[in-house]
Amino acid sequence: MTESEAQAVARVLGGDAWNSGGGIQLVVIERPDGRVVAVSDEAVCEYDDRDALMHGGPSNSIMLV
Fold first, then answer.
1. How far is CA 51 from CA 3, 18, 26, 42, 47, in A?
2. pTM for this one?
């Protein structure tokens, strides 16, 4: 997804658009329980926390393509 698409999706879902590097745009949503959901144009992934998003792997994921 493009930067403008990520920003639009972030507004709708209540998250933040984030460029994770390499041209990959994500929408990042921090849940009240501390978990983080990252949405790309290929997958929706849940992480235990922001540190897991940055340095670990998802605890759950759904591939969209």
1. 23, 15, 16, 21, 9
2. 0.91
